[in-house]
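Per reviewer request, we include the raw input and output of the structure prediction for the construct analysed in the revised manuscript.
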Amino acid sequence: MTKLQRIRSFFWGLLLIALSVLMQFDAELGFVIAAIGLCLMLLWMGIKYLFFYAFMARNMVGGKAMLYTGLILLDFGMFLTTMSASPRIFLMMYLFGSHAVSGGIDIMRGLEAKKMESPVWKLSTSKGVVNIVMAVLCLVFLRSDRVLEVIYSLGLLYSAGVHIASAFRKTSIAYIP
């Protein structure tokens, strides 16, 4: 990780902490931040995957999966943008889905890294477990408006902690003679 990437990761973590704290002070503002955050995240990831496909992945094995993933994420983001004025249960379902899928993928990555005896498996598996716990909390408190804000806020705090920790973590450099 370069110095600029470390600085960006650190300040991104601080921004996430500020948003999380702001969400806890005003309940209605917290819902708006959660709705906008979910919409923007899905839209951004969809666009990112589509650009990755256009410039790199179309020539790679399995590149079409990037195209389909980008289209699905972009579609979900646009659909959620139109539904954000609807009942909050839709946002709760999207939050549940994103945590469940992300948690499952992180756990599978962690188990694969453990098979390869990589030291990163603990972090990946713990991220997956935290995401699965968040998904279960979303299901348990599906009808509660305030829980949406609390779960999203806790997710932001956890993500901020990971960003700040990665900014200070030493990275290994492989030198090839």
